Amino acid sequence: MAMIRAFENTEYTMGREGTVFFFLEYLNYLDQLNAELENTEKIWKKKLLSWLKFTGASNQWKADIVYNKTTEKFDAFRMQIALKNIVEPNQHKLAAELLRKIADEQPFKVEIYHEAFPFADQYIIIFPSTMRNVGMSLICMSGIALLLIPSFPSAVFIMVSIVSIVIGVFGYMTHWGVNLDAVSMISLIMSIGFAVDLSAHIVYAFITAEGNSVERVKGALSHLGWPIFQGAFSTIMGISVLYTVDAYIILTFFKTIWLTMVIGLLHGLIFIPILLSIIPIAVFHVHGVKDSH
């Protein structure tokens, strides 16, 4: 009974009035007979089995019980508890976690099931999965940047830029009504590839240019500023038609990529050049070049 009360007395369950359990009905039956609740074989085995067989709800209880005739014991049973306050996805997640915690605290095996809990499992694992996948993508991009750009500080600078872009996309996705789910996670990971382009090109042009930091920034922007703008703007215009499609997956993809391109463009043409012009060129360990900044 302690287990039943634990499940019933939560903010997501309706209490005793929402519980369907053969044992509670049997206790009501004994109470109507004014029977003393003693731990005797007659009450808890013979009379219970007879009641389960001949009660008006015998078909229902038959589906809820697995009785082993060999051992004359109940191998398993099922009870139903009505839920409440599970309208929002986060409430599904919290309800699943709470009920599973109560089940794990019992001295015997208890399994929890609700038709919405498969979705709750997605909500539970989606954030750590997103962080892990984004982290792995950043590690891969770091390795590629180190191979293609002969400057470790430059590779670090690119990674910081990508992280900044991803954080910006995360934040504005919330304001734009995009929830973190499997679709947005995939789109977010894909967007890292776009973020790399917008950051790496301008940094590489800066490293390979001549002069001090300011001169290198001017050279990088004069050579790649317009192509970067054209590439980002054409991508934005190309995916903008997707906004007219009334489909969640397509709209999520559009919003994620659109945010990535806009925020990445701001980084590539404004934020990164400003920071590069401030940092002395000696920090980037470019061989054969003296800083006159």
From TrEMBL:
Keyword Thylakoid: no
GO biological processes: endocytosis; molting cycle, collagen and cuticulin-based cuticle
UniProt keyword list: Cell membrane, Glycoprotein, Membrane, Transmembrane, Transmembrane helix
Cellular component annotations (GO), alphabetically ordered: cytoplasmic vesicle membrane; plasma membrane
Subcellular localization: Cell membrane
Membrane topology: Multi-pass membrane protein
InterPro entries recorded: Patched_domain-protein
Segments traversing the membrane: 133-149, 155-173, 185-207, 227-245, 257-283
Assigned protein family: Belongs to the patched family.
Classification via PANTHER family: PATCHED-RELATED, SSD DOMAIN-CONTAINING PROTEIN
Protein name as catalogued: SSD domain-containing protein
Biological source species: Panagrolaimus superbus
Lineage: Eukaryota, Metazoa, Ecdysozoa, Nematoda, Chromadorea
